[in-house]
Write a structure and sequence with these properties.
Elements (H helix, E strand, L loop, with lengths): L1 H4 L5 E4 L2 E4 L10 H14 L6 H6 L4 E3 L5 E3 L9 E3 L1 H12 L5 E4 H7 L3 E10 L6 E9 L5 H14 L5 E6 L6 H11 L6 E6 L10 H11 L7 H14 L4 H11 L15 H20 L4 E6 L6 H13 L5 E7 L13 E5 L5 H11 L7 H11 L3 H13 L22 H10 L4 H11 L2 E3 H7 L4 H13 L3 E4 L6 E4 L2 H9 L3 H17 L9 H11 L2 H17 L3 H15 L6 H22 L4 H14 L5 H17 L3 H17 L7 H14 L3 H14 L2 H4 L2 H5 L3 H15 L3 H18 L2 H17 L3 H18 L3 H16 L4 H18 L6 H5 L1
Parallel strand pairs: 3-6, 9-12, 9-13, 10-11, 11-12
Antiparallel strand pairs: 1-2, 4-5, 6-8, 7-8, 14-16, 15-16
Helix pairs in contact: 8-9, 9-10, 10-11, 11-12, 13-14, 13-15, 14-15, 15-16, 16-20, 17-19, 17-20, 21-22, 22-23, 23-24, 23-25, 24-25, 25-26, 25-27, 26-27, 27-28, 28-29, 29-30, 29-33, 30-33, 33-34, 33-35, 34-35, 35-36, 35-37, 36-37, 37-38
Length: 852
């Protein structure tokens, strides 16, 4: 079937081989090219079969060109025999080629020119009077992209000496960015190297590390039927292959992949922010570990759709590339411009449109087996304006619609036909002619760029044979690509624009009903909540017009992002949820939903923008207004605490007092909130301290400590950041020193120290250590500043920098100012410590955020 499609209807079986005749009985202008393209298709055909069959089915192909004698030489009427040097050479090339390779003769190589990529092989094949050189076909050449390929190849050669680089490949949709990357990957396929492939998705722009999660699942070889233990085994094997010890890395990646691993690994005793930093470090180590073993090609597709955390990881990887054997290829649309694009080892490659002669070459390649008339080709060249995808789709549309070509008397005047004016119109026209396959393409497009057979089967009314027939037709038309075997198969559209064309062909009312059904199936078909992708479900509910369900699922997506310390993505998710929730008709449930989302939004903004950012203040002000209408006291307290923290960071003493009092009033008026009384007294005491009312501060802080019970109130540390008792004790120490009771001040600081170390809660220990620095500063004791400040710096190096590191940096500078002389060497020593703190920080967070 493949050979006939490319113009070789005549075949002859010879032993274990088959001979195809291109140019007989009808000769065409590009028979050699047709033969090579047919060979490429034949070699790749087994990949579409079941894995067990594909592994045992291999093809080797030899192609030669020349004059032969054709006839029934046997006299038995068994068909045409072919005699000549080309026939015997093709057979010899076929016998010498390794499995799944295509070898061609020098004459065939001359005829097909630069349409393909080649490698010289077997230079001494006997042929006639002299040996002939054979060539292996390594793949199709990317028309009009020779210069771009050469540039990337130069970067690859440089990387072999541990001077890696990044290439940003920019261009409009359909211009050929992914094809250029694929062509380069084919170019170096025979060289020893590793390849990592990451694909971003428009449906997961706020799902933290989505392209990395899917890459890990592919690289580890996860199968649908794998048990959790089997998946963990595969995960550890993948980690070890990168030269990394799985002991510390596997638990973090298991959490990232939502794999329940409590029976296998001890709990990860890290805060969400610390876990995020450690996870990013492991993901970076996976790349560097592979690159240190052999050259590494890292492909990151469609970066304009990447989530913020993935871009942070990409920043880290590109930053270290210059000292590794790695080339990073990043494809993106023109509006994507990362902050690091101007780094010395980063090259920006803008992909332009093709020249007319290159367009004609593409048309000829696609239309092999069909003779398009010159005027049709001219119209395609003119209409497509050098956009490769448009050229391909329009040429296929012309062929599929039987718009002719060349009439029987040889006239170049085609019958009249309408060429779609845009790429999108061309794609839509192809979809419209799909027949029964059209519905399958449309439903698949509603699911997304990639979809599973299982989900599609639950959405369509066709029986299984009809569905599989429709899918096969879409594969044959190259609108869809299949991965795996039915029923576990997944399908992906050839291009995002193909998916968009199929989707836009549906009436809006049908789209809404379909999205509703998709969302329901997604939530019903999974056995574990961890397997549900809340962002995807939310988008389907939103497109179905179900605002309440969409808001709920966007909120869940925000909660999941906060759990992974992906605060930028969390803020975006909560923001989308709030927009939808505000459309719901006012009611008590709607108010509760709005408040929950508003508080989540505020917490995400605290971490991503800071306590004192205007957006954070506005978020909690809105939460406060909503809380006034809500009976849930716990949610009201969260809103008030968030606003108090923002006022604290901006040193707004009046609002701090008002909010602390409001917090306390809510606790007093609601018996069920009595547990938060320890927090209320602490807020009143800290506020009084900053207002200079030290006696009142002492009273409230002592009350907080008297109420405090480690077992009862310890869990509040997860809600408010640090242990409440330790917080009250360190501030009481500061108050007592100010009131002149230095002995009691030191005693309470020592008590806080012992309690914090006993709890082994890193944020609480850092908080306590910072206030040890503060006590030493107000006591004018520079030597006492140094140990706790160094401890915070070391903790920040181990667990990641945050506001505590900024505070430690400030205290090292305070020690420098307080130091009584000490000579130049002592002064230099203190300055070096301060600079070390500068180098360690991940960002200059507000000191007040750490002190709150």
């Amino acid at each position: 079937e493949i050979a006939a499609e490319f113009g070789a209807p005549e075949t002859r079986f010879s032993g274990e081989g088959i001979q195809f005749y291109f140019g007989y009985p009808t000769a065409h202008e590009h028979d050699a090219e047709r033969a090579v393209r047919a060979g490429i298709r034949i070699v790749g055909a087994p990949a579409a079969l079941a894995p067990g069959i594909a592994a045992n089915l291999q093809a080797r192909i030899g192609i030669a060109s020349g004059v032969v004698i054709v006839g029934d030489l046997s006299g038995r009427g068994a068909g045409a025999d072919m005699v000549g040097e080309a026939s015997s050479l093709a057979s010899r090339l076929c016998s010498m080629a390794p499995p799944n390779e295509i070898w061609i003769s020098s004459q065939t190589r001359e005829l097909v020119g630069d349409l393909f990529l080649y490698r010289s092989v077997a230079p001494d094949i006997p042929h006639g009077d002299a040996p002939t050189i054979a060539w292996q076909v390594c793949g199709e050449s990317r028309v009009g992209r020779a210069g771009e390929l050469e540039l990337i190849l130069r970067r690859w050669r440089q990387s072999e000496t541990a001077h890696g680089s990044t290439v940003l490949i920019s261009g409009e949709p359909g211009i050929g960015k992914s094809r250029l990357v694929k062509a380069f990957a084919q170019r170096i396929e025979s060289e020893p190297h590793e390849k990592l492939y990451y694909q971003c998705s428009p449906y997961h722009q706020n799902t933290p590390l989505y392209p990395l999660i899917t890459q890990i699942e592919r690289a580890a070889g996860f199968e649908r039927e794998d048990s959790v233990e089997r998946r963990l085994d595969k995960l550890e094997k993948m980690i070890s292959a990168a030269g990394i010890e799985p002991t510390n890395a596997a638990p973090l990646l298991a959490l990232l992949l939502s794999l329940p691993a409590s029976q296998r690994y001890p709990p990860v005793a890290l805060s969400p922010a610390q876990r995020r930093r450690r996870t990013l470090a492991v993901l970076v180590d996976l790349v560097s570990g592979l690159a240190m073993r052999q050259p590494l090609l890292l492909i990151f597709e469609d970066a304009h759709w990447a989530d913020a955390t993935s871009l942070e990881w990409l920043d880290l990887v590109t930053d270290m590339a210059h000292r590794l054997s790695i080339v990073i290829l990043i494809t993106h649309r023109p509006d994507f411009k990362p902050a690091w694009f101007a780094r010395p080892n980063v090259t920006t490659l803008v992909i332009g449109r093709l020249e007319p002669h290159d367009v004609r070459t593409i048309i000829r390649g696609i239309s092999s087996g069909h003779e398009l008339s010159a005027s049709v080709i001219d119209r395609i060249v003119h209409q497509t304006d050098g956009i490769p995808l448009y050229v391909e789709e329009l040429t296929k549309m012309v062929i599929e619609s039987d718009l002719l070509l060349r009439d029987e008397i040889g006239s170049d005047t085609p019958t009249a036909f309408a060429i779609p004016p845009t790429l999108q119109d061309s794609l839509s026209a192809r979809v419209d002619r799909l027949g029964t396959s059209r519905e399958v393409a449309q439903i698949g497009a509603a699911i997304g760029r990639e979809f599973s057979y299982e989900l599609l089967r639950g959405l369509i009314t066709l029986d299984q044979p009809a569905l599989e027939s429709a899918l096969n037709a879409l594969e044959k038309s190259e609108l869809l690509f299949r991965h795996g075997e039915i029923p576990e198969a997944t399908y992906s559209f050839a291009h995002a624009l193909v998916q968009e064309a199929a989707y836009e062909a549906m009436p809006k009312s049908r789209r809404r009903a379909l999205h509703q059904r998709i969302a329901e199936l997604l939530t019903a078909s999974t056995t574990s909540p961890a397997e549900v992708e809340p962002e995807v479900v939310a988008q389907h509910y939103a497109l179905a017009g179900d605002d309440e369900a969409a808001a709920q699922w966007w909120g869940r997506s925000g909660d999941r992002a906060i759990g992974r310390s992906a605060y930028v993505e969390a803020a975006s998710n909560f923001g989308k949820a709030l927009v939808l929730a505000e459309r719901i008709a006012p009611s008590p449930p709607q108010h509760r939903l709005l408040l929950r989302l508003q508080i989540g939004y505020g917490h995400a903004l605290i971490a991503s923008r800071g306590h004192g950012a205007p957006e954070t203040t506005a978020a909690f002000a809105q939460a406060r207004a909503l809380a006034a209408e809500i009976e849930d006291g716990s949610e009201r307290l969260s809103a008030i605490y968030g606003m108090w923290s923002g006022s604290f960071c901006r040193a707004e003493l009046g609002p701090m007092q008002e909010l602390a009092e409001r917090f306390a009033q809510n606790v007093e008026s609601s018996p069920e909130l009595s547990e938060a009384g320890v927090v209320a007294e602490r807020l009143l005491g800290v506020t009084a301290w900053f207002r200079g009312d030290y006696l009142r501060a002492r009273t409230h802080l002592e009350r907080s400590i008297a109420i405090y019970d480690n077992e009862q109130h310890g869990p509040l540390a997860l809600r408010f950041g640090q242990d409440v008792g330790v917080c009250a004790m360190v501030y009481l120490a500061l108050v007592l020193w100010t009131l002149g009771d230095s002995r009691e001040a030191r005693r309470w600081m020592e008590t806080a120290h012992a309690l914090a170390m006993q709890m082994n809660h890193v944020p609480t220990i850092a908080y306590m250590r910072m206030h040890e620095c503060a006590l030493a500063c107000i006591a004018g004791d520079p030597q006492a500043v140094l140990p706790p400040a160094q401890a915070v710096v070391e903790m920040s190096r181990q667990h990641g920098g945050d506001g505590s590191l900024s505070r430690a940096r400030g205290n090292l500078h305070a020690e420098l100012r307080l130091s009584p002389g000490g000579g130049r060497s002592g002064h230099r020593k203190h300055r070096n410590r301060a600079h070390a703190c500068h180098r360690s920080t991940c960002g200059d967070r507000a000191i007040g955020a750490a002190m709150a």
